[in-house]
Design brief:
- With 234 residues, the protein is of the alpha/beta class.
- The chain has 9 helices and 9 strands.
- The strands form 2 sheets. The chain has a 6-stranded parallel β-sheet with strand order 3-2-1-7-8-9, sandwiched between helices.
- The protein is globular and about 55 Å long.
- The protein binds adenosine-5-diphosphoribose.
- Adenosine-5-diphosphoribose binds at residues 13-15, 18-19, 24-26, 30, 92, 110, 177-179, 181-182, 203-205, 207, 219-220.
Length: 234
Amino acid sequence: MPYDFPSIVILTGAGISAESGLQTFRGDTGLWEDHRVEDVATVQGFHRNPSLVYEFYNARRRQLQDVTPNGAHDALAQLEAEYPGSVTLITQNIDDLHERAGSQNVVHMHGQASSALCSHCGARCSWKGDMKESSLCSHCQRAGGLRPDIVWFGEIPYEMERIEKALEACGIFVSIGTSGNVYPAAGFVNLARQVGAHRVELNLEATSGGAFDEGHYGLATQVVPSWVKKVLSR
Ligand code: APR
């Protein structure tokens, strides 16, 4: 790694997809205003009422057909393509907009709407249409075991070892479009501080006092491209 191009770790949240038309979770128009987390984003909720949970994620999955990446997603894909150092993109989002913008090194720590997990055989498979109890696992061909491949509250996020390794080696940590409400993602900025990384927040508004060295506030489609341009012009 060329020394003067420290590795960059980016954490994104729902705010980066807001201008593509996907709802965020908190705030007056947030998803959690119309649904109780306990009902649609916990294992208990799924066992209590599976069809409610299937339908919640079917709606999320269907919406992906009608939205496209925005300028902030595109800017991060350009950063990964043109920055001489390494760029790791960790997202809390379950949409596929980073990939569709061209980002390749993406870690979906909360899972993906377009993936199904089978509790019979443990396989994960790509899932584009609606899912229901009678849906067949494309691996073991059994019904009654498929769930959305989403990390629910109380479950362990995916790829935490890979995430911690990237944070330990990072020189720049950038938090984009996340309220910093949910751990462990909300704690990544502190891990970055411990290794002396330069910490940047790009968000609609400042989230936690003093955790960041640098902050640019406004719409992601404005603040993210301009920050990427600054980094690439160094
Ligand atoms: N541009 C930039 N930032 C925005 C925009 C925008 N257009 N719109 C909203 N934001 C910011 C909000 O100010 C807020 O700080 O994005 C953040 C969205 O916060 P949340 O709705 O809490 O979403 P997120 O931080 O991703 O939630 C984390 O919580 O419910 C769980 O699993 C879910 O992954 C999610 C996690």
